[in-house]
Amino acid sequence: MNRDTKTPGTEIPCPVERVWRFPFKRVFPSPAARLAGIPGYWLVHGLYRIRVIGREHLPESGGVLLIGNHVSYADVFVLQVAVPRPLRFVGAWWLFEKWWVRWFVRLYRVISISPRRPREALRRTAGCLRDGEVVCLFPEGRITRDGRIQELKPGFLAIAEEAKVPVVPFHLGGLWGSVLSYSGGRVGSKIPSTLRRKVTLTLGKPLTPEEMTVEAARRRVLELGQAAEQEDPHG
Fold first, then answer.
1. Per-residue model confidence as pLDDT tens digits over 208-225
2. 172 φ, ψ (degrees, to nearest 5)
3. pLDDT (tens digit, 9 = 90+) per residue, 198-210?
């Protein structure tokens, strides 16, 4: 559960959908990714009980930039299972230097971002968006260490300005406290509290021009989480 203060009167996005079908051919970018991803899909469903709120806010076609909170190392897997379109993620450059994860980020075409070449990552991300892809970016820059949504970095604003595509905010709830989060100390140091953790992905309406600031975008992500919690305070 996110620990930020609630905003009274926040509207609840709807409808709510349980994730049980998965368009394998549409979501995975290649046969190799599909082969690796199908077991992962069933593993994610075995570990998490996922519901989606506001899926109608995600356009069925065309480029879309998804921005939201980064809670755990499971986020990317939950998002790919819950979103019925292929996702391209933007990841830190050091992921490509770790042998145990390098094959994965290349297989799923993760876009590398480096502080030494930020413009290169911006142009590549904008190009993917103009080509009609859905790109997911965690603008906090790292996984939360305390369960709160940190300040957003402004890079997503430059990407959205260059690509001219909708920016859809999202909130992931239920993953803080899981084994793959930093809750209670190191990742992996906790014993799972339940076999199938309840996780909620809440998608919001695309940001308006007035909301295209780091403060307003962060506020929208918070509101999405608060709305989902008000609907199901025990979820």
1. 999 999 999 999 999 999
2. -100, 120
3. 999 999 999 999 9
